[in-house]
Design brief:
The protein is of the alpha+beta class. It is about 45% helix and about 15% strand. The protein has helices at about 5-15, 25-30, 35-40, 65-75, 80-90, 135-145, 150-160, 170-180, 180-195, and strands at about 20, 45-50, 50-55, 80, 100, 115, 125-130, 130-135.
Length: about 200
């Protein structure tokens, strides 16, 4: 076990997460609870919430709630559904909570986080603003399945295509993969846009 805190390694971890890190990540590289507390008191770290910190010289993120949820949900979690739409600034949906896809074996107790255990395929996840997020086309499939209103889905698809965030081919690929209602709705929106 590491006994001396490794500030360089903590910086590398935090840098890849927009300045945020967990107490668990810090403990793995030698930071005791007392050392974390000392760094908070000295102004080097900001305690965002229990178990989540930010290096003070990194600016706060406008998506701090998403970072907190993602780090709280644990390794392998991904921002999804309406929360992903918000990151992409698609549609005008205001998420009622933070949506995160987790592995089927992860703990389900995460406070105000809406957890999903949907299967993710290669290419379904990208990094956006320092967060792992479902791709635009996968996000749209997820919100269709979750029952988001048609007008929000239509707006999200049209905005995503107009802004070049996805392609018709990628949308149709995701639609075929899911089938049924998802395929029909995506096809209807895309054909409507072409016409």
């Amino acid at each position: 076990m590491v006994t001396k805190p490794n500030y360089d390694q903590l910086y590398e971890i935090a840098e890849s997460q927009a300045g945020y890190f967990t107490a668990h990540q810090a403990r793995e590289i030698g930071f005791t609870w007392e050392r974390l507390s000392s760094n908070v008191k000295s102004g080097k770290f900001l305690r965002v919430m229990r178990g989540i910190y930010r290096l003070i010289h990194f600016p706060g993120s406008p998506h701090e709630d998403l970072f907190v949820a993602w780090l709280s949900a644990g390794k392998g979690s991904v921002i999804s559904h309406q929360s992903a739409l918000a990151i992409y600034d698609l549609s005008d949906v205001i998420p009622s909570g933070v949506h995160v896809i987790i592995s089927r074996t992860a703990s389900r107790r995460r406070g105000n986080i809406r957890l999903h255990t949907n299967r993710l395929y290669p290419g379904d996840v990208i990094i956006r603003e320092g967060l792992p997020v479902t791709s635009v086309s996968r996000t749209i499939v997820d919100v269709i399945v979750s029952g988001l209103a048609y007008e929000h889905i239509e707006k999200a698809i049209n905005e995503a295509l107009q802004r070049g965030l996805t392609t018709r081919e990628e949308m149709l690929f995701q639609a075929r993969r899911r089938g049924g209602k998802v395929h029909e709705m995506i096809r209807q929106v895309i054909e409507g846009e072409d016409g």
